[in-house]
Amino acid sequence: xxxxxxxxxxxxxxxxxxxxxxxxxxxxxxxxxxxxxxxxxxxxxxxxxxxxxxxxxxxxxxxxxxxxxxxxxxxxxxxxxxxxxxxxxxxxxxxxxxxxxxxxxxxxxxxxxxxxxxxxxxxxxxxxxxxxxxxxxxxxxxxxxxxxxx
Length: 150
Hints:
With 150 residues, the protein is α+β, with helices and mostly antiparallel strands. It has helices spanning 24-32, 36-39, 91-102, 138-149, and strands at 5-7, 16-20, 42-46, 50-55, 68-73, 76-82, 85-87, 106-109, 126-129, 134-135. The strands form 2 sheets. Strands 9-8-6-5-2-4-3-10 form an 8-stranded mixed beta sheet. A two-stranded antiparallel ribbon has the order 1-7. The chain is globular, with a radius of gyration of 15 Å.
């Protein structure tokens, strides 16, 4: 499957973000200022390529420069897509293809944001399975991030 991306207007409402491992220090700095109650509202998936972070409400997401903001379309509730970019195929069809491949809700990251060109789709687009979405505990997340750096 090859995806082409075009500008989305209007943008989706942000409900998650994707950041690269180079942005880890900024993430840790922002999250270390969060209360335990606020951290409890966040969940993440850590991959070789980056970090997916979501919240029970968009207002709880940390502001970090240069991240990719993600949202959902009503027609594809198990698919997180860039808020400002849309694929050239219908999103319900893309969601079904992702669910067949990942067996879980999925974030789709366009190639410009993928580190080192690692990809699950032939055009460089990355599919991130959210099957292992877990709650944030700052010490645990810091340990995970440190392990990924080694």
